[in-house]
Amino acid sequence: MELKIFKNPEEIGEACGKLYADYINSNPRCVLGLATGATPLPTYKCLSRMCGEGKVSFKDVSTFNLDEYCDIPKTHKNSFYTFMCENLFSKTDINMDNVDFLDGNADPQEESERYAKAILDKGGIDIQLLGIGRNGHIAFNEPADSFSDEAYKVKLTDSTIEANSIYFDDIPMPRYAVTMGIGSIMRAKKIILIATGKSKAGAVLDMTEGPVTPRCPASILQQHSDAVIFLDEDAASLLR
Ligand code: PGA
What we know:
Layout lengths: L1 E5 L2 H18 L4 E4 L6 H12 L9 E4 L1 E3 L10 H8 L11 E2 L7 H14 L5 E4 L21 E4 L2 H7 L11 E4 L2 H5 L3 E6 L5 H9 L17 E6 L8
This protein binds 2-phosphoglycolic acid.
2-phosphoglycolic acid binds next to loops.
């Protein structure tokens, strides 16, 4: 895994946004794996701006998102689908027919099979964007006894509920989500993980310098042949 350290989240957003724009410009029909949360926002801001300036077009790009909550409608204001529409899709020229999402209200097994086939039919994910949880999770793959493979329904941990419930002001945060599995993430040709802030420093240390273990799901990225980790100085502060 390759580590790149930047001053702050804004610098990472600019660097990652440009990396994506360059990639899309040379592969206009590429398949992107996308992530939600606070971490990718500066990257989405950069890409939205560049699209507005005519420097990149999402017209032929296909996307798959990592995860979605169960038990809320797709269009609820806190769904990850709404998050993506508000922070990226509505600000680009993407064709919404090329946007695919896990359905948190479908039968989990059937949905997992549908998603795996849809990704395969598009030729696989070219670049997968990831954040990391304070407990080392990637997507909603929480610390566990073994690594998952394809998408599945997961019970969220207290750490994740504590981190994300700040976004839920009208209803209690869902306790379950559907998430791409570790196997589906690892099959992406390239992986970009962004971590910013002091609260991620421990997870970043475990991911990069600890053993590969499902107790720190992100540690599996040590075994990916093209994983690039973008860190700000705070997130990198515990590295040796
Ligand atoms: P965050 O979430 O970007 O909101 O910190 C990242 C994650 O939990 O994977």
